[in-house]
Amino acid sequence: MNVYLAVVDTLADWQIGYLTAELNSRRYFADPALDFNVLKVGISMDAVRSMGGLVHTPDLTIDALELQQDDVLLLPGSDIWTQPVARPILELARDALDRGHQVAAICSATVGLAQLGALNTRRHTSNDLGLLQQTCLHYSGQTLYRNEPAVRGDNLITASGLAPLEFSYEVVKMLKVWRPDTAKAWFRLHKTRQQRWHHELLASLS
Fold it and tell me: 169 and 195: one domain?
């Protein structure tokens, strides 16, 4: 099982920080020995720079990507998703959704998907419904829009750029690498900062 993180210029570091840290560390995995990888996929093999100034070098390009059944393609926010340079990755994501593969997109990545019409028949959210209606020529999915921090509709997760925690929670549930009780306690701990959830998180691992 692999998570493929699309690394593009101006990648929004904070929107995937919870997720990449937990998936890379495996500290809450139900099976720490699981054959699992987080791989960086780029438009090319050229290094890119995030909004935070971190440099990411892709492990592979989109041309070499072959999604398997349990894999997830992860699209973080970025300034480039409405630009022509990003279209190959967005088309890859749209086609992956159509074939039943799992895709998770946050913030402006959802806008890019809307521009391609990929959200028209799927439950979704974004930063703002009005923005999608005003700026996305091929968007007609307003009846499936949900005004929620993060939404899962079958094989697609979408989230507002202000909801990295909720986004991460939905992705780990989709991946099923944590026990349900672990995911719930982890989310509640970060959401409420109440000590009881730390105890429940630790108890869920035994």
Answer: no
